[in-house]
Amino acid sequence: MDEQGEVKVKNPWHRPAFIFLAAFIILGIVIMVAISVVQNKPLPQKYKYGIVLDAGSSHTSVFIYEWPAEKENNTGMVQQKHTCNVKGKGISSYDADPDGAGKSLQDCMVEAKQIIPAHRHTETPVYLGATAGMRLLKMKDEAASEKVLTSVEHSLKTYPFSYQGARILSGQEEGAFGWITVNYLSENLNKPTGTLGALDLGGASTQITFIPQQDIESNDNSIDFRLYGNDYHLYTHSFLCYGKDQALKISMSKKLVSSHAAYKTDPIELRDPCFHPGYNTTKTVQSVFNTPCIKAVNFSSGYISHVGLGNWSQCQQSIRKVFNTSRCAYSKCSFNEVFQPSVDGQFGAFSAFFFVMNFLNLTSDSLATTKQKLATYCSTPWGKIVKNHPGTKEKYLSEYCFSGTYILTLLEDGYNFTSENWKDIHFIKKIRDSDAGWTLGYMLNLTNMIPAEAPDTPLMPYGGYVTFMILFTLFILVLLLLAYLYFRQSSRKAQKGII
Ligand SMILES: Nc1ccn([C@@H]2O[C@H](COP(=O)(O)OP(=O)(O)OP(=O)(O)O)[C@@H](O)[C@H]2O)c(=O)n1
Ligand SMILES: [Ca+2]
């Protein structure tokens, strides 16, 4: 009986079974915390890559993008890692030598092979998108445009990447993907903040894309997206032939056609207010008229003596003739009978908008000051301009007076920007180290990297999760300790009571 009584009152916490149990619980908790910490630890970043070739009218650029493999659906994660400018002109200039188009891409593609880690090559998609230069070549000679596309396709397939196609983008796609790029890079897409309109000026076309305040009256100009759970209703228009190289040709051809000298002298004299005083160069008539943007005309000579006058206001008068604003079948138009709502919000103006305005140092002045400075620049003698810019190609240099005046006229008379909202135009090249342009938006779309609905976000960030787990474990340990002390005390009391 005595022995039995003693067994009953023995402290249960001192039994080996209980000690083992407590040790197991504590060990279990420690293991659980350790596993969850290790499991959720951010792994060393693994990057994925994508290549987009921008086959523009004046040149081709190869863009390499990279993004952390685990975060491809988050906004703003894709970044431009590298760009390579293809030597020579755009692929549309290879109409007489299609094989040359494919060959021209070699150097940049070899560079891409060196930059992208070898184990990622086969999974890296390659896209080529051609813009207005190829649209014009297709209009002029469809067979030649197909041969050029076949040539670049053959060339791109010789690399170890995953070739995804080479095609001509429509003007709407070019405008819409440019808009997606600038808003993705500015991280506007998953926030309730306003979006950025996109203004793109190339050599052969120009695009305007923004969210308007009013209805879009023409179906051709309307694009709808659902991105990150938000619906976007965009206005977009692409003006073929209104890139700055084609616009220069149109403007020169109009001056030639209206000039009496053009039909009598040899060479034809073209006195041009958009070129600097003292500028005098011989060009072929063919170099101006070799485009489907202009109707062919017969002249007395095959050569033009292009003489600069350096008169900004006359230059602007001549450029205004390129825009037809006399008729509009809608409530509002930009030009050439194209519907356009009033511009609204902030705009990013990139590619040649930036190259030209940045060269002229005109990216942050009021409209009135911009005009004044440009007038002074245009009247500067050509000799002085050449002396002041020894590193710049003479062809580019000679055209900045025309290009600056064209940009001002396009924005003010064409798109209807005013001196009040001029400050809303931001001349930009890059946003967060990636170029503004259609290429990034094109890749994001084709790789489905912008989901229609917002991706699920974790309950709490990683740091918060670890802190929570540690505090929770400590809390359980304290509870166990308290329970242990409580039971030890109560079993002692029970022992004392029996004694
Ligand atoms: N540093 C630079 C680079 C380019 N340009 C000019 O800018 C125009 C081309 O702009 P870009 O956006 O590269 O046009 P593309 O993409 O080639 O043409 P498009 O989009 O119409 O197909 C050309 O007139 C080119 O001479 C310039 O003035 N200064
Ligand atoms: Ca372009």
Strand content: 15-25%
Low-confidence spans: pLDDT under 50, at least 5 residues? 1-7
Q: What do we call the CATH homologous superfamily of the domain at 47-168?
A: ATPase, nucleotide binding domain
* CATH topology-level name of the domain at 47-168: Nucleotidyltransferase, domain 5
The appropriate CATH architecture of the domain at 47-168 is: 2-Layer Sandwich
What is the number of strand segments? 16
Q: Calculate the mean pLDDT score and round it.
A: 92
Q: So what's the CATH class of the domain at 47-168?
A: Alpha Beta
Give a quick account of the main beta sheet: strands, pairing sense, barrel closure: 6 strands, mixed
Structural class: alpha/beta
Strand order of the largest sheet: 8-9-7-6-13-14
- Bound molecule kinds, no repeats: cytidine-5'-triphosphate, calcium ion
- Could you say which overall geometry the principal axes of the C-alpha atoms support? elongated
Helical content stands at 40-55%
**Number of helices, where a helix is a run of at least 4 consecutive DSSP H or I residues:** 16
Distance between the termini: 15 Å
Spatial extent as radius of gyration: 34 Å
Key phrases:
disordered N terminus; binds cytidine-5'-triphosphate; single chain; Nucleotidyltransferase, domain 5; 6-stranded mixed beta sheet; binds calcium ion; 43% helix
